[in-house]
């Protein structure tokens, strides 16, 4: 049972509540320790931390890949039980595009629906919509090797959204891209997020990226992996290049950077 | 969000002209170089035999071998048909049994643990040593030859397919798990496509081995004098000292081997050229 007496800070119930979530690997490494975190419906949250701080492990646990060794992850009723076809109500974007090289963009995006038992025609129609959403209309029959790194990542995001999940988890999706492509994808991701209205959790080790994208930044520290501070980014959307060059952006980046430095014990 | 398309057109604008001419040059060289080597070799052979007046029962000239191929064609063609029939049946059986066993092994670990050692034993035991036994046990000669050729041919397909089924990308496996894929779905949409390049590499090897198995087994069985494939023609020609005919039969076996290799290569290319690194031309 949740403590009913705890004062509710938010006017709405969280989509997901993590309470005391811990993960200790069989090697004894304490990857994640006692994480309390509420994910609010529709928010854009970034998890910022140095490599090895357990942020990816935390994200995977939210996705259901590997159970926590302590604490619990609760979904709001009506979610988590599943999307239309009964799998979890979330999409996941990996660090690599993780596309099937033998399938074209359309079939890659349609995969989650096919796995949920949807008819092929229906799955492909939904996939076509999502490819258009991420700006890849016309590339349906392109194979992954024919696409650039940024385009592959767009396909991967389209696949994450094809089941129309309430929650999209992203694990450093743009870390391997060049800065220009990354900026463009940040910008486009925000537009898609605002259009569709899912809850976004974005893991990154880039201060600038986290400030540009999110409403709330959770800073994690390593050994053991834990949340050390939270930073609210009040800047309104839409955010564009004006925001990226504004002084409020710079000062927020400084704050996030300071918190990260503290987290890393410097 | 229209920029990716522009990016694509730019890259292809840089490409076509030099690539196209380079590609046709490449193809031309690929055909011309081996052809030229062949002509030089055969010309040298013809000349050497004529100049040194080597009798045809030691070494016939290439022209004499071609003559024999034409004059003995009815007999040789019938034998070729038998050898090819055995080879292809054995290869088909190797694909079916090797592929099915590979799937079974990767789906049920205990089956692999129990049976794989025996597959290895079957593979490492020389076929010439098992062939006499099989020929004694199986009454139908063609069937016994088929079994021998199959034993030689199935292992590369089995071991390559197992490797391929197990080499599916780990992130993709996580993705399938995330979306609650069933075992059958994971096999169909992930592991089988991932195994395809490996399977095809095995098929290329097995195609040649099936032919070798068919010929070797017939050499062993041929002493019984019941079969009439190309190996039997070679034995027969040897006893009768019809050396040009031996060479003609040998030529047909070699050509059959080359044809099988080309056919399996073309199949592999057709199936992989859109996506697999092995079938893609490097451009840099």
UniProtKB/TrEMBL annotation, chain A:
Transmembrane portions of the chain: none
A Pfam family hit: ABC_tran
Domain ABC transporter: from-to ranges: 16-247
Alphabetical UniProt keywords: ATP-binding, Nucleotide-binding, Transport
A molecular function GO annotation: ATP binding
Domain of life: Bacteria
Alphabetical list of InterPro entries matching this protein: AAA+_ATPase, ABC_transporter-like_ATP-bd, ABC_transporter-like_CS, ABC_transporter_ATP-bind, P-loop_NTPase
Flavoprotein listed as a keyword: no
Assigned protein family: Belongs to the ABC transporter superfamily.
Full protein name: Nitrate/sulfonate/bicarbonate ABC transporter ATP-binding protein
Organism: Candidatus Raskinella chloraquaticus
